[in-house]
Amino acid sequence: MSLLAGFTVIGGPSSEQLARRVASRLGSRYVGCDLRVFPDGESKITLKGKPSGRIVVVQSVYPPVDSNLVRALALVSQARKYSSQVYAVVPYMGYARQDREFLPREVVTMSLVAKMFKAAGAARMLVVDIHSMTALKHFQFPSKNVTAVGELVRYFKKMRLMDPLVVSPDMGGAGRARNFAGLLGTGYIALEKHRDRRSGEVTIKSSTNRDVRDRDIIIVDDMISTGGSIVKASEHLRKQRCGKIYATCTHALLIGDAEKRIKKAGVSRIVSTNTIPGRTAMVDVSPAIARAIA
Fold this sequence. Notes:
The protein is of the alpha/beta class. It folds into two domains: 2-147 and 284-293, Rossmann fold (3-Layer(aba) Sandwich), CATH 3.40.50.2020; 149-274, Rossmann fold (3-Layer(aba) Sandwich). The protein is built from nine helices and 16 strands. It has a six-stranded parallel sheet, with helices on both faces. A six-stranded parallel sheet has the order 10-9-13-14-15-16, with helices on both faces. Strands 3-4 form a two-stranded antiparallel sheet. Strand 6 (86-90), helix 3 (109-120) and strand 7 (124-128) form a beta-alpha-beta unit. Helix 1 packs across helix 9 and helix 2 (65-80) packs parallel to helix 3 (109-120). The model has no long low-confidence stretch (mean pLDDT 94).
């Protein structure tokens, strides 16, 4: 990709390896950074080189969310000193679930985050499988959501699955499951989930409208945080004597003992992407990011 040699990719502390992969795919120069965290929690970032041309800053905003958000903004602000064309690539966008006022007097934090990126100097924003497109609408400058579904499907195509069925743990993810199933060449269903807005408790209200007996299941979601939805869906499906259960998502936060609870519920394997590094990050999203930038 010689046309993109004019790019410099800056890898933030939360996304260094992913940023290196993006730079490699773009045929662009990579600049890393040093991070120092002071005893009071403040972050100090120093670039390891001088960027030039159009600059791509890659920094996911996963836990610690506030720290990684400030680091992303700091890198964008520093990049703006060298270029008027700064692409903020935030593979996992924290605060995307706070995109509207669900209960009276709630702060719509996503709106503030969008304003901060613009103020820091971002000319464009790129995210991967953001939790809702409503969140993306808060950005008052060119922004784009790219999906990792194609990359995840390629992973599962290499597996020997028994009459696989794609399952969304809730009705809101039906479109994602339909897309995933279409690319995989199989069917899908969506469970009816209810989450209490105040307590966060999850329950499955619907009975499965298709026989899942002896079929391998792929539960598909955009993100897995505490794992409550995946656990409930797995328990529901196991009662119907399905085959093996796999859970896949773009963003595996896996807070606390989520991974242990999911495995205990009967999930054989959790497959996620490297928007958030970790043991389950088996799928690389740098091809999708590089294509979107190109």
